[in-house]
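Researcher: For the annotation table, I need structure tokens for Type I restriction modification DNA specificity domain-containing protein. Please keep the output clean. Sequence:
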Amino acid sequence: MAFDKLDRFIEKKSVKAYSLPNFDSMQVLGVSNQVGIAITDHKKSKDLSKYQLIEEGDFAYNPYRINVGSIGLVPKGVKGLVSPAYVVFKTKNSLLPELLFDFLKSADGLFQIAKYARGTVRKSLRFNDLCQIEMQIPPIDIQRSILRKKESVQVEINEFKTELTHQQTLLKKLRQQILQEAIEGKLTAEWRQQNPDVEPASELLARIQAEKNQLVKDKKIKKQKPLPPINEEEKPFSLPEGWEWCRIWDVAELITSGSRDWAKYYADEGAIFVTMGNLSKDSYRLRMNKVRYVKAPLNSEGSRTKLQEGDLLISITGDVGNLGVIPKGFGEAYINQHTCMLRYMPECRRQYYLEVMRSPFAKWQYNAPQRGIKNSFRLGDVGEMLLPLPPAKEQYVIAEKVKYLTSLCDQLEAQITDNQTHAEQLMQAVLREAFSHSSGQQNQEAVNA
């Protein structure tokens, strides 16, 4: 099948709003590369008179963003206005708009859009440039056949995607269940039966307290205020024999946050300034795609909030409970007032304590005492959080169990992601095959003639 330029199959539209009755009451629409045509509150002007009408079957695109797939086809029953900066057009009767839309969103279509776009710093595709794009366009009856096949396959793909989404939901629940069963001792029940004589957690707590007392005596840390006793009503589940309930302050060396005055220390280079945006949900990996730097002050504020390897960071305003752990070799870094820094005692700087703080039980505690419109979780709340404490040796076993089970979850998630990619590629393959088949069908008809 030969390639045809789009100029024979499309025509530009430009119906201004001022020519329409009651245009001020019409909905304003926008275009994105994710959802296509959508209602938007974003208006470039309060005066809508120069906006353009779009209705069912029309195309609209931003000339400067069509290269990333930002084009929309107006669905049935939709009518509204778009910015005058948009290009609006429609297909003629010889080309089904659905097929053109699929083509322009495909890899081949995006390649041609990039080919015909103009500009140096910021490229744009004007309507005349769009008309130069070439596409294989079969007769209208074959187009309808292609569309029916595409819609049939789309139903199957949508069902497949729904199942994949369901699998992702179940996998997320499984990850949370693994963490919850870990901190309740359920993952290591068999291990405890095989190792009945391990040192109980009560002795670990006593040893940590003695170490903290020495640090206070050496004036390396301040003496903490007495913690409220843990009553039976606070305990949400029973612990295995040898475990103990304690509060975070019982096993912490330092709990603090930054001050509000760090803005004056911002710089283009220097020490890393970790903010809430660098923390993760359901994980303790730092997201460092965006990094801010500071020239730290040479005072107590600088030394107090300077981060160390193994420090656990917790967001305490807004989206409370996002986490991050300072890795080895991270370099000089600091935090602001929206982030809590939790530094465990040396004997407690282990993986188990990190897993506790991202478990469903920890999330429940993050959410329980939040205050104010923006939500807040005070440093005192962090220190008073409950922690189920296993014997020291069992902590290592729990961490290994969680690591192994999490790796299995990672493998399942990778398979789901691959299947999602394959689902997206399937539709493109169906369209390519359909056009190729239609080309072959036309050629055979010409031979028979």
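Researcher: And a one-line annotation?
Model: The CA atoms of residues 352 and 399 lie 5 Å apart.
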